[in-house]
Every structure is written in structure tokens, then in C-alpha cells.
Input
Amino acid sequence: MKAITKTNPTPLILVLAILQLIPNCIEAQMTPSSRPSTLAGRSTVYAPNGAVATSQPLATGAALKVLQDGGNAFDAAVTAAAVLNVVEPHMTGMGGDVFALFWSAREGQLGGLDASGRSGSLATPDAVRALGLDDVPYRGARSVTVPGALSGWSALLEEYGTLSLAEALTPAIEIAEGGFPVTPIIASQWRGSSRVLRQDPGATATFLLDGQRSPAAGEWFQNPDIAAFFRTLAREGIGAFYGGSLGARIVEEVQAQGGFLTLDDLKDHEPEWIEPISVDFKGYQVWELPPAGQGIAALEMLKILDPIDLESMGHNSADYLHHIIEAKKLAFADMARYVSDRDHLEGDLNALLDDAYVERRRALINPGRAADRVDPGRPFDSGETIYLSVADGEGNMVSFINSVFEYFGSGVVVPGTGFVLQNRGAGFTLQDGHPNQIAPRKRPFHTLIPGFVTKDGEPYMAFGVMGGSMQPQGHVQLLLNLLVFGMDLQDAIDAPRVRHMGGTRIVLESPVPDDVRLRLWEMGHSISAGGSFGGAQVVLKLPKGWAAGSDPRKDGMAAGH
Output
């Protein structure tokens, strides 16, 4: 089939016939007049003393006030996370996990935190198979793992913050008790989860008004249960959750619904300070956290793409998007095969970033044709979410991600607690011999990845793009926008994205034009309608002061002082 060019005009009837063959593409978005040419335009925020970017304005405001009152970036990050637990409850909270990359001005170095929980002591392949299941349950109590978020909040405050946990929780308590108007994107996602919430009495009572419906945009919502839970934590400390009376309530309900947690699982949980991993890219050092997260996939993608002349292809051209998609397939095939709990890896996964190995993987990309199936390589011999970033006047920078996985996680809310428990257990496999097979007290494969960039050994940018498997893809596209095409920070966030879904199926944001879509289809990509493309939050260090940007795909905002 010939491509449509100015030098070889094609009759309109043939163009329409071609478009009708594109799978799932005959949508309103295929009509040029129905699609915007850009996403929402915002200006990059510039500030002299400190900056915050989160996915919800009340969280941004609370974090900014902490900075203005003399708190540091770690205080502000935890305060924002607690507020987001209240105002964006389907995405995040105490019932989930936390990961962070951070620059400590006191230490003059980058650090990492893994505050993710493990599976319950009762979680075995036989226990799942005895239920007549072929996979680990995606929802419900059997998908619940130990919630690590609260331990992460506490660890960051104790090691690097200036506020107590009680002080950091105060804004969230006030908002939960007094109530707040729900923002539009959150309201839409909440509405889409109503069926899940109706499956659990605690979730119904907590998150559906009158037990019937989700709140509409602008409608007032209160959560006195989570306010009371926070108050108990403020008074008794996190031990009340990890092995104490609050934890006992959690375990009792989870076990009553057939889940695998024990009180000792909560009591024995500890967050871990871990060493980040990195690659060089265009004169910068890009940092991610090691497994069990997806960070290594983002780094492998960058290494695959690094020597390719993407700039000459043109931003969001068909050739450019094709190479991003094909690099993603290769990196994700490796990740699916090898990534698991750090304690259960088959070998040193740094081998996935070895120059010779990456070169072999890069050679598999056909520049003119989409791969239908990509197998993992052999790097060694056998073997949903909120993101926020904060910086302060001292030079501390925090890249922070907190999630309950799917919208409203497991769908389980222990009555009276006010928050949902995550469904991270769904990240396990039942496949015998796989490093990510479910087992007692084991970390599941994790999607959460905060990102960080340094230059010449100094902090440059705290960034993240939340959204399941979109996260590595979003990290790479954001970095290419900034470091290859030299975009303004907010423009780099706003720029339309591609998301590879599986096989040859991709989704494209609406501003991507029809000629690019048609060329991708000719290359063998199956273009689907819809899809979500994550939400970025970024804080960038200037020679003097800060720049920050927030994604228009979310309800949030960036602010500074």
C-alpha cells in the first residue's frame, strides 16, 4: 500500500476505504475537526524558594503551606500524600505502598526508599489453586498484601523531616472532617468504579453517597472514618497499625473474607532504604529504583533508544513513535520474564543494562515493521497511583509515588477505617518456577516507579508519570521531550503520548494527526481508541530557583513560593 504524500495524491474515496480498515480506529477522534491540536496549555511554574507538583490542588496547597511555614520537602511530600489519601482515595493511601527517590541536601547524595509490603504468610500457590483459580485474584481480600505506605511516610519524616507524623497528618484530618468538593477527573474515575465499591459493604458505606452513588464533580464529600483513623495514628504512632489494635481490625476483616494476611505480617513489616540504579542518557544520569518495580524497563528503553537519531525523525512522527513502541516491547518482555522480589531474582538484573546485551536487543527492531511478539532475551545464564514531587530552599528534592494499584485497589474497606486496601497481590503469577510466583512473605511485581535525574553529580529533576504500565513509557517520552527535543517543561508534560498495550495494539492521544496514524498502521500497528496516558508531576532545579509542571490529564497543579 502506498503512503499518502503531497507528490502522490490519493483519491478521497480510497483514503476513506483505507481508514475503514484500521482496527478500532473508526472513532470520532479519527476526524481531524473533532480532535484538538494540543492538550491544555499551562505555563511552567517558576519559583525562588521551593516548588510542589501534585495531582490534586488541595494536596499541592497543603504541601506548599508546609514549605512556607519552614518545613522541608520531606515534610511536604508526606503531608501531600496524606491529603491525597482523602481527596483522591481511589488512587492512593495508607492501604497501599510507597516508593521514593530523593536528594538529601544534608547528605549531598541521592537515596531510595522501598516501603512496599509483602504477601501474607498464608499466601501459597496451593492456597490459590485450592480455590479453583488459575490466577491470583485481581480484586477482593485475597489480592491484599501488607500495606507499606504508612511505614514509608513515617520513615521519611523520622530520617529526613522536621515534622512529626501527627503534624503531617493534620491537614488531611481537617479536610476529611470538614469535607471538600470533589474535582472533575477524580469524580469521573470514582463513578467508573461504583460497581467495584458495591461489592464490599465497607467500601459502599465509605465511598458511595447514601450507599448508592459516587459524588459528582463539585459535590461535597466527607470521610470522618479516615479522620478518626489518622487521629489514632497521631496519638499512638504507626505501631497501632503494624501489629497493634488498628492492624488487628485490618487482619480480622481480611481473613474473614478469605485473605492471606496475619497480624505478624503487619508487625514484622519494615521499609527498606535501597540503592537506586541508573543509566547515562544525553549527558544526564537517569535514576530509577531496582526491582520489584518497573524502573529497570524505563532504563533499558532509554539505552536501546540512546544511539538512534530520534531528533531527525521529528517529534511524534510515525518513525519516532514506532521506535519508542518497539523499544518498549523489548524491555517489557525482559521485565516480564526476570523481574520479581529482589530476594528472588535469578541473577543480577544489571545485565539487562549491559551495553552488549542492549545492542543485541536494539538489533531486533525492524525500523519499518511492528513486531507482533517479542521474546525475552538472555541477559545472564539461567534465570493506580499518585505521583508527586517537591523541592525546598535547602536543596532537598523528593520524587514520591504512593498507590493502591487498581482504582480503589482490592475494593475492600475495613468498616470504620475510611481507606481501601491495595490489590498488589494481583502482581504475582501462579506459574511454577517463575521468579514472581506467589509465595508467603514475598514482594509482588510492582508498577510504581519514581524517577530522578542528576547532571554532573548534582540534582536536576524529580519526576514521575503515574499509570500502571504507562509509567516506564511515560518516563521515556517525558525525558525524550526534555533532553532530546529541548522542550519547555510544561510543554514536555503536555505533549501527546503513545501507549503500547500488547501485541501490535497501541493507543494514541487525540492530537496525533491522521497521517501519522495511517503510517503506523501501514507499519503493522493496530491503533485502538481510548486508553489512559498517565499523569506527570515534575520539579526541576534551575541555576537559581525552581521550575515545576503538572499534568493536565489530572486535576492537579504545580505551585511555588
Remarks:
- The longest strand covers residues 458-466.
- The mean pLDDT is 89.
- The chain has one domain: 35-294+339-346+383-497+533-561.
- The CA atoms of residues 281 and 306 lie 7 Å apart.
